[in-house]
């Protein structure tokens, strides 16, 4: 239990919020989203400019996990909470035809949008599945790099989420993630708010 809520209630609230984000992130967050947000987070201008508009509409990242280390051609990368697919798109271009960009997202609407966006962008080395980071649908020790952008804060069972990440990583694999963290405790009424969990 988290406050008076259980993990399923929190996941349902997150799923509901991100079903709306799948249509457009504009106005749903207290920070810049879309192309403006990607620029503010340090993504390369050339990459942003080449990305199809629909790929950027739902982008709501909180950082740039790809800036935390270099991806190499031929690697397998898993994006946990891939959203509409922008980080997958960027990773797929780096990995090349022999690499594989895998994505999972909790929200069926986001999975559908990501698949459409990546297909429209001509990406052939990516796969997207619906799943939670607390139960990844991948075999153990099959992924070179796990990336994530603003996702772990949305799941109540962080130890389980990170255990799953390390389960799927190959020995010597890397985790590159950007997220929101607190530097002080929140008031009880906020901790117990479903809206706060999904924002």
Compact overview of the structure:
One of its GO terms (molecular function) is arsenite methyltransferase activity. The chain is of the alpha/beta class.
Descriptive notes:
It is an enzyme of class 2 (transferase). GO terms for molecular function: arsenite methyltransferase activity. Its EC number is 2.1.1.137. It comes from Eiseniibacteriota bacterium. Residues 72-193 form the Methyltransferase domain. This protein has 199 residues and is of the alpha/beta class. The protein has one domain (7-190): 3-Layer(aba) Sandwich (Rossmann fold), CATH 3.40.50.150. The chain is built from nine helices and five strands. It has helices spanning 7-21, 34-40, 45-50, 53-57, 86-95, 108-120, 158-168, 188-191, 194-198; strands at residues 76-80, 100-105, 126-130, 143-149, 169-178. A five-stranded parallel sheet has the order 3-2-1-4-5. The longest helix has 15 residues, at 7-21. It starts with 6 loop residues before the first helix and ends with a helix. The mean pLDDT is 92.
Q: Report low-confidence residues grouped into runs of 5 or more.
A: none
Rg of Cα set: 16 Å
How many beta-strand elements?
Answer: 5
List SSEs in N-to-C order: HHHHEHEHEEHEHH
Task: Provide mean pLDDT, rounded.
Answer: 92
**What would the principal axes of the Cα set say about the shape?**
globular
CATH class division: Alpha Beta
Query: What amount of the residues lies in strands?
Result: 15-25%
Counting structural domains, the number is 1
Let me know the CATH homologous superfamily. Answer: Vaccinia Virus protein VP39
End-to-end gap: 19 Å
């Amino acid at each position: 239990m988290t406050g008076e809520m259980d993990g399923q209630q929190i996941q349902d609230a997150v799923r509901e919020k991100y079903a709306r984000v799948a249509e457009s992130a504009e106005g749903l967050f207290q920070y810049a989203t879309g192309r403006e947000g990607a620029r503010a987070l340090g993504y390369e201008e050339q990459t942003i400019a080449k990305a199809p508009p629909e790929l950027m509409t739902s982008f709501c990242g909180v950082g740039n996990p790809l800036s935390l280390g270099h991806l190499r051609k031929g690697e397998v990368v898993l994006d946990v909470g891939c959203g509409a697919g922008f980080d997958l798109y960027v990773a797929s271009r780096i990995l090349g035809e022999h690499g594989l960009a895998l994505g999972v997202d909790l929200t069926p609407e986001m999975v559908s949008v990501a698949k459409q966006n990546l297909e429209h962008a001509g990406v052939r080395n990516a796969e997207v599945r619906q799943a939670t980071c607390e139960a990844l649908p991948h075999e153990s020790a099959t992924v070179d790099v796990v990336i994530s952008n603003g996702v772990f804060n949305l799941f109540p069972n962080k130890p389980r989420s990170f255990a799953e990440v390390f389960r799927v990583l190959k020995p010597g694999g890397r985790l590159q993630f950007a997220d929101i963290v607190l530097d002080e405790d929140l008031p009880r009424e906020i901790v117990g708010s479903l809206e706060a969990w999904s924002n």
